[in-house]
Every structure is written in C-alpha cells, then in structure tokens.
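Bench notes, afternoon.
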Amino acid sequence: MSSPGWPSDLVTAQDPEFLGQVTRWLLDRLPGEFRDSQSRKDPVALAWVLRERIQTDIELMRRLYATARTGSGSQRPEDLLDTLSAVGAQLLREAREVNCVYSALTDLHHSATDTSHLH
C-alpha cells in the first residue's frame, strides 16, 4: 500500500521495480533536455530539480491569481481565476507526489550509504 500523496502511476519505493521506474517517472515531468543529460542517471537530483520547479510554478500561480483582476486585462477575470485555481490545485498535488518520491529516494540513498561501510 502506498503512502498518502504517493503518485498513483508509480510503484511504491519498496517495490523492486521502483529504481527502474522512478527515473522515467521524473523525466516525464521535467523538460526534455534532462533526457539527454548526465543528470538522468541521478534520480535524487532529478527529484530535487522537479520539486524546486513545481514550487516555483506554485509561487507563480499564486502571484498571477493575486493580480489577475487588475493585471490581466481580461474581460472575464472570473474565468481566468477559475483556471489559475485549477492549475494551482494540480501543482499542489504534484508537489505532494514529488515530495514523497524525493523523500523515498533520499531515504534509499541514506540507507545505501549507511550500509556501504559494511561491505
């Protein structure tokens, strides 16, 4: 069973397929340039970048929402506010998912680091 906020389209971190799937999951949500970069081999770094990018997008949606009535020039600001609200809600869901994935990856990384001296 996955934890609250865990992405429905990604196996849990305890699943043996997790490390194979998580990189693809992250790359699907990042700009295409990451697919060809050396960073694609570092899921912790990818999750960090995605987490920061989503947080920046949330801040942008909040700023846009706060200024939409006066700054957009829209004849129908209520429609724009509804759209911005929906996008913001989706970004908050994505932020929860990415935070869960990032935590799982860093836990796995720390566990591997903590036991590496035993080998």
